[in-house]
Amino acid sequence: MGKYFGTDGFRGEANVDLTVEHAYKVGRFLGWYYGKKNPGEKCRIVIGKDTRRSSYMFEYSLVAGLTASGADAYLLHVTTTPSVSYVVRTEGFHCGIMISASHNPYYDNGIKVINERGEKLEESVIEEIEKYLDGEAGEIPFATKDNIGKTVDFAAGRNRYIGYLISIATRSFKNRKVALDCANGSASAIAKSVFDALGAETHVINNEPNGLNINTGCGSTHIEGLQKYVVEEGCDVGFAYDGDADRCLAVDCHGNLVDGDLIMYICGKYMKEQGALVGNKIVTTIMSNFGLYKALDREGIGYEKTAVGDKYVYENMSQNGYCLGGEQSGHIIFSKNATTGDGILTSLKVMEVMLEKKQPLDQLASEVEIYPQVLKNVRVKDKKAAQEDADVQAEVAKVTEALGDDGRILLRQSGTEPVVRVMVEAPDHDTCEKYVDQVIAVMKQKGHVLQ
User: Fold this and answer.
1) What is the distance between the alpha carbons of residues 188 and 162, in angstroms, rounded to a whole number?
2) Nearest 5°: CA angle at 242, between 237 and 246?
3) Is 102 annotated as a binding residue?
4) Which residues participate in catalysis according to the annotation?
5) Which of 9, 34, 282, 388 is the most exposed place for a label (fewest CB within 10 A)?
6) pLDDT in tens, 139-148
7) Are strands 72-78 and 44-49 parallel, antiparallel or unpaired?
8) Residue 172 is labelled as binding a ligand
9) In this structure, what is the dihedral angle of CA atoms 338, 340, 342, 347, given to the nearest 10 degrees?
């Protein structure tokens, strides 16, 4: 991770950590870089945004930078991150930009850059952007005369993405009562149109964005609202998206959460039965629940474990040709259809399994026993020193031995804070608490913990 760009773009509080000047300079660099990379072609870059008030401000700043460097800026307006990826790779754009801070509160925002293949931008280019932001690169020339870029309304691209999603469904959703929580974000412009077109009786909540209510008490980070709504309205299933709709969590008809791990199991098992699970493997992160691995072992399905972040999941899938991967948080990647996590696509895939197998979601999910999990964040003086301390590691080894095949312990450094996360999964909550506290006690004894 760089100084500005993390695993999912340049993100921070609008006009505090991420300013209009930053956005302008990112636009200047991208317009120049992709113009230089494709000599003899007019550089074409497509931009989408979520519903935050600051998204308009950043859109205009990016457009100014892009056009000043000679690129044409195509505006999708309010749309989802996966739609930007889709449009880039199917419409011949040189690059895509999504303005969003995903599941963060409204006052944050972010710039996600997508390369010409519809994938998250490679680290080598991010390093060059960061040098330019810090004034360590040379000046970028301004375009002049007829080389100055133009701005193009490209709402048609978003509509083509909606059509693509509709084309993926294998069956009609007629007579299915479906609830959608759009998080007052990007899905508000797309999700209902897709489900309506497929014949569902669609009930939508949190689809009235006002610039300040994105992710506020709603969406995939506040699933309780959808859980209550599904039960009260007698829906067959519910789906919750985050601010830019690249993740999806589901709710069964009884109001129970079906998270990313359960979705990967349900879809992975079905894909194996259909002969469509390439390599007979699913790509997970190290934070997936122990119960998922137990269930996959039982079904004879293999798995890979990556660092946390859908970027790393996709890298593994791409390198090895796997077709399904994701995170517990609901970033699910179906590589046959998309190069990023796509919340609406994920909900369509879950509907497909329910309809093809003629089983309700609660029955499909009941095959996985999710293990209780306790995770505590420990503020430390030095993350690396705390995690690699010999006595801490010895205690972790003792816990690992005690848990045997019935659980696991994981220590992980935060990427953004002076924090070590201690997580234990075991058959019961009290066992989790006991072992987490044992390891933290050793960290305290060794003087690593900030008081």
Assistant:
1) 12
2) 95
3) yes
4) 102
5) 388
6) 999 999 999 9
7) parallel
8) no
9) 60
